[in-house]
Amino acid sequence: MASLQIPEFLSSPQIARKIPDFEKYHRQRSQTSPRNGKPCIAFNPPDPNMSDIKLAPFNIHTTPYKTIHGVDIPAHILIPKSLASNSQPGSRKYPVLVRFHGGYLVSGSALYTEWLPPWCIDFALQNSAILIMPDYRLLPEATGQDILEDLRDFWAWFAGSESTGLLAYLKSLDAGVDVDFEKVAVFGESAGGYLAIRSSLLPRNSWGNAFKGCKAVIASYPMTLLRKDWYSVASETRSPFGAPQLDEGVLDAHIEGFEKGDGSKVVVSAEPPARLDLAIAMVQKGRWTGVFERAGGEGLWLEDVVGEFGGGDPEGGKGAYHLAFHGMGDSAVPWEDTKEWVDIWAEKFGEDRVKGVWRVGMEHGFDNAIDLKDAEGKWLKEELEVVRREWLGA
């Protein structure tokens, strides 16, 4: 087999700092692992027991929140070690921060920490919060409806009973921690920002255990208005992360490969740069929206869903507090879409329920370099304080 060279643009620090074996990645792209007689696949899934300095302050627990076609879709529950050391006899309730990873809904994984900004970890630790990071099915094997189903199923598991959901799992750990369902916030970066926002717009009367939805939603450089030209019309000048124009044949061959099967191939994890060529080709060739909506568009478009949302708390009728920020030099996701989205949220819920921050010249993923203790991080620290008050009520 000829040696395969990793494209220069895929080795960019903005895309991935830890590059897996690229030749191995290309071999994996054509392979599946049978499970219960059905094909399934996960690309370079991170080891939940891996040693990672970012995750050192947590005890990490992984459990499936659903299984489909014999494939477990995991939620990773990160409990600060400080909570365990401070626990008294019996369980104490703690706030929760749920985080969804990015990757155009095509690549990425919950435990890929190069895309997990340090401020998110600090924000959880400073507020004694349990950090929960679910994986989900990925395009193009999955559809937008599949991903939306996973989102709903995750939150159903999250709010489930003491015998079936998150509470049951925490009880089995005997870790002395419980969930305060009145103090839940959600965060996502890029495509994860879309999932975080969509989570906050799920019907609040569908949950149990006192969970009535998220109190705050943070979206960094989020994908929002997914029917716009950026995702649906081909362009020869679109260059996420400086990528050259990619061959559409790469995408065609990939789709043809899994369509020959019985439709049960499931991808739930892809450590970058795996599959980023597919994602970028989908955007450059204007095919991302078509792949996303090919099983129907109902419930997928934020601008439609927010208009149908029945309000927030029964007493107050207000939506979750929403912080969105975006670099104005973003080559991967248009910052102008986020600005338009913030205006839509403000029109629905009020200008006091949303804050948009636009950072001049900043590229996608710029917040990975932010330290909340430095002067450069002052703006984010101040905005997170507003989020904290909405989230924790203090």
From TrEMBL:
<protein>
    <recommendedName>
        <fullName>Alpha/beta hydrolase fold-3 domain-containing protein</fullName>
    </recommendedName>
</protein>
<dbReference type="Pfam" id="PF07859">
    <property type="entry name" value="Abhydrolase_3"/>
</dbReference>
<dbReference type="InterPro" id="IPR050466">
    <property type="entry name" value="Carboxylest/Gibb_receptor"/>
</dbReference>
<dbReference type="GO" id="GO:0016787">
    <property type="term" value="F:hydrolase activity"/>
</dbReference>
<feature type="domain" description="Alpha/beta hydrolase fold-3">
    <location>
        <begin position="97"/>
        <end position="229"/>
    </location>
</feature>
<dbReference type="InterPro" id="IPR013094">
    <property type="entry name" value="AB_hydrolase_3"/>
</dbReference>
<dbReference type="InterPro" id="IPR029058">
    <property type="entry name" value="AB_hydrolase_fold"/>
</dbReference>
